[in-house]
Write a structure and sequence with these properties.
Layout lengths: L35 E3 L5 E2 L2 E2 L5 E3 L1 H6 L6
Antiparallel strand pairs: 1-4, 2-3
Length: about 70
């Protein structure tokens, strides 16, 4: 069973810019696997999201971020 396809304008969520404050993850905070996938501009392509690579943050770092969740 596939997922329904829609465009962002009709999606049931809002996309906002992430937290760029002092809690923003440092390179040492990223892991190859983990609690929460952390998307960056490298994951966004003209044809959609590219999940072939990804960085993860742990639950503690995720809790520190104030916005930018989906």
């Amino acid at each position: 069973m596939g997922y329904p396809v829609t465009n962002f304008a009709n999606a049931p969520f809002e996309i906002i810019d992430g937290d760029r404050g002092k809690a923003y993850p440092k390179q040492s905070d990223f892991q190859d696997t983990g609690y929460c996938l952390f998307l960056s501009a490298t994951n966004v392509t003209k044809s959609g999201f590219d999940f072939s690579t990804g960085q993860f943050v742990d639950e503690q770092k995720d809790a520190q971020l104030r916005k930018g969740r989906l």
